[in-house]
Amino acid sequence: MPLKLMYITNNPEVAVIAENAGVDRIFIDMEFIGKDVRQGGLDTIQNHHTIQDIKNVKAAVRKAEIVVRINPIHENYFGYMDSKEEIDAAIDAGADILMLPYFTTPTEVQKFVEYVNGRAVTLPLLESKKAVSCLDEILKVRGIDQIHIGLNDLSLDLGKKFMFEILAEGLVDDICDKIKRYQIPFGFGGVGRIGQGILPAEKIIKEHYRLGSGCAILSRSFCNTNLITDQKEICKIFDEGVKEIREYEKTCVDNFEQNHQEVIEIVRGIVA
User: Fold this and answer.
1) pLDDT per residue over 73-108, tens digit each?
2) Strands across the sheet containing 25-29
3) Is pLDDT at 133 greater than 90 in this prediction?
4) Distance, CA of 42 to CA of 44 (rounded, Å)
C-alpha cells in the first residue's frame, strides 16, 4: 500500500492543489499550548489554525481527509476552550481525524478517546519521552485508531541534535515493534522531495517500508508556501513531487537493511 501523505495548510486553494496531486490528508494544525516552549528558538513550523480554517478547507476539498491536530489535554487556557469543547468544535467543523499531541500518560489518551467518542478517527501523536516510557500502557487504551510518531519533538525531548538520530539508533524500530503487536496502523515523521535533503527523502521512504509504516507528513521543505506564492509554481511542485514519491515507492521491495545501514552512516555524519 502506498504511504498516506499529509500536508499542513489552512489555505483552501493550496489544499485543493495538494489533493489534486494525490495528497491523501490535509492537516489543520490548531496546536499552540506549550509548543513555543518546547520548540522555542528552533526553525520549526508553529501554526495556529482555527475552527474556521477546518470549515474552509473541508468545504474546498472533495475526497482528502481532514486531519486536525488539537491541543494537548487541558482545562480552560487563558479563555481558550477546554479539550472537550475543542474536540466537539473540531468534529462539528468537519474533522475526519483528530490528532492528540504531546501526551505523557495513558490517562490523557483515555480522556481523548472518550471525548471523541467514536465520532472521528483518533490519532495520538507520540512525541514525548514520558509517553515512550509507558507506551505499553498507552497502547492498551481502547479506541486508538492510528498512531503517528513525531520525530521532531521526541528528538528534542530526548536531547538529540538531529531528528533522525532516533531512527538510526533503533528507538523508532522499538516503538514500531510495540505498536505492531497491538495491530494499530502507524506512521512517522515527514519527508521532502525525492533527491533532496541532507538525509534524502528516498532513504526515509524506504525506512517507512522497512518498518511497516503507512503514513508520512510532507515537510515544509517539500513546498514552503510562505516562500512560494505563485499558484502555478505550487501546482507544479505538488504534481511533480507527489508523482516522484509514488514512482519511487514502487521500487521499495528489497534492500531494506542496506538502506538502513546507509541511513545510519548518513545520520552519524550529520551529527558529527
Assistant:
1) 999 888 899 999 999 999 999 999 999 999 999 999
2) 186-188, 147-149, 121-126, 97-100, 65-69, 25-29, 4-8, 215-218, 190-191
3) yes
4) 6
Alpha helix ranges (H) inside the chain: 12-21, 35-39, 51-60, 83-93, 106-116, 129-133, 135-139, 151-157, 165-168, 171-181, 201-211, 231-249, 256-271
pLDDT average, residue stretch 191-198: 96
pTM as predicted: 0.95
Q: Which residues contact 185 (CB under 8 A, 6 or more apart)?
A: 145, 146, 147, 214, 215
Do β-strands 65-69 and 4-8 pair in parallel, antiparallel, or remain unpaired?
A: unpaired
Residue carrying the nine cell digits 550529520: 270
66 close to 15: Cβ distance less than 8 angstroms:
no
Per the listing, cell 519521552 goes with 129
